[in-house]
């Protein structure tokens, strides 16, 4: 079997940076699609468009169409995928640390000075235009795109996808807090501040959130993982919390970067876990006080971007925090939907019990 380091070196040599530019053909297609598909508001009165069964913002839709058109996987490409607020930041950090461990010194790891989102770009967001691109050639990207809408260049290839899901109750609470903190360019921050939890829950249950319905996103990847287990590793946030060591080793093996016995004996796995732990990441200066600019689309007029405070990606980092926010009735409602939606799929979520 090929050693993980030689595989990594091979991928480094072959890696070419993906560049998307403003593409008038995709833009016209996007305009045409936008004018015909269902449009609704989410709880925070942002416009959502329903495309291929899922809701998304206009820039995400254009970014997704652009990725469908232009994304070309690298050799040994790894893609981390999730629905928002399910553990994306953590998963990005872990996979990045696993994949860069052969050529990045512990003390200079970019994760110490940059937000994980800045180290691992979303294919539908800022892959082309991040102002401070990393010079590391790591064949690692992320996405929130639902499985059925992924670029064919991914689903028809041998890319490895690591997907993470989370108890919908915690994901919903996390989303609600995030939107409170969101600082959107050219938008009134206060516009997002007054949405009661009850109202936001109603929208979430109806599937009216970015990448919603939440449950359908999970199921798409789950079914694909059953069909192609060598292509998709399906993780649960709560499992990763409970037994991080086991799942980090599993992830490394899955993406072709297994830890050698020697590395294990030297504590390499634990070092990565410690580096990426919520406690460490949330205490880093960059994550306490920095800002990240997520570029959501390129138009004739330039780049459209949202700016987020890095600390908005680090709140509690716990499983079961929903208990501090949801009433038993709200929790029951989400659990019931989860049960109904997942019935017969073979997928069970680690939902923390109600009460
Ligand atoms: P995104 O989809 O907008 O990138 P994502 O990273 O998926 O967000 O979700 C953020 C959640 O992950 C937050 O959960 P909370 O609101 O319930 O606290 C955040 O705290 C949590 N998170 C971020 N980093 C870590 C980490 N290193 N370990 C565990 N949880 C984390």
Automatic annotation (TrEMBL):
UniProt cross-references to Pfam families, sorted A to Z: Sulfotransfer_1 (PF00685)
Alphabetized UniProt keyword annotations: Transferase
Every Sulfotransferase domain range: 75-346
Domain of life from the UniProt record: Eukaryota
Protein family (similarity comment): Belongs to the sulfotransferase 1 family.
PANTHER family referenced in this protein's UniProt entry, alphabetically: SULFOTRANSFERASE SULT
Protein name listed in UniProt: Sulfotransferase
Species name: Quercus suber (Cork oak)
């Amino acid at each position: 079997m090929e050693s993980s380091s030689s595989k990594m070196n091979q991928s480094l040599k072959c890696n070419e940076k993906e560049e998307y530019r403003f593409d008038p053909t995709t833009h016209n297609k996007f305009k045409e699609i936008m004018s015909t598909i269902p449009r609704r508001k989410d709880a925070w009165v942002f416009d959502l468009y329903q495309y291929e069964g899922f809701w998304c913002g206009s820039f995400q839709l254009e970014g997704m169409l652009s990725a469908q058109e232009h994304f070309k996987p690298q050799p040994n490409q790894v893609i981390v995928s999730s629905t928002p607020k399910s553990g994306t930041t953590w998963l990005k950090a872990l996979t990045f640390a696993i994949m860069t461990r052969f050529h990045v010194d512990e003390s200079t790891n970019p994760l110490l000075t940059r937000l994980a989102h800045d180290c691992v770009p979303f294919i539908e967001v800022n892959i082309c235009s991040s102002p401070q691109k990393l010079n590391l050639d790591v064949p690692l990207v992320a996405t929130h795109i639902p499985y059925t809408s992924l670029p064919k260049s991914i689903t028809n290839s041998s890319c490895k996808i690591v997907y993470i899901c989370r108890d919908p109750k915690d994901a919903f609470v996390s989303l609600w807090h995030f939107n409170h903190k969101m600082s959107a360019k050219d938008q009134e921050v206060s516009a997002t501040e007054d949405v009661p939890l009850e109202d936001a829950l109603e929208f979430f249950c109806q599937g009216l959130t970015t990448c919603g319905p939440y449950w359908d996103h999970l199921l798409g990847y789950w079914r694909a993982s059953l069909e192609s287990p060598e292509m998709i590793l399906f993780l649960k946030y709560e499992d990763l919390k409970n037994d991080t060591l086991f799942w980090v080793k599993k992830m490394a093996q899955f993406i072709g970067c297994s830890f050698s016995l020697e590395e294990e004996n030297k504590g390499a796995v634990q070092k990565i876990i410690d580096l990426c732990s919520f406690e460490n990441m949330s205490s880093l200066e960059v994550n306490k006080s920095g800002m990240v600019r997520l570029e959501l689309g390129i138009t004739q007029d330039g780049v459209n971007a949202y700016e987020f405070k890095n600390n908005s990606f680090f709140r509690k980092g716990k499983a079961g925090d929903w208990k501090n926010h949801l009433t038993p009735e709200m929790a029951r409602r989400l659990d019931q939907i989860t049960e109904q939606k997942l019935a017969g799929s073979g997928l069970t979520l680690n939902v923390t019990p109600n009460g």
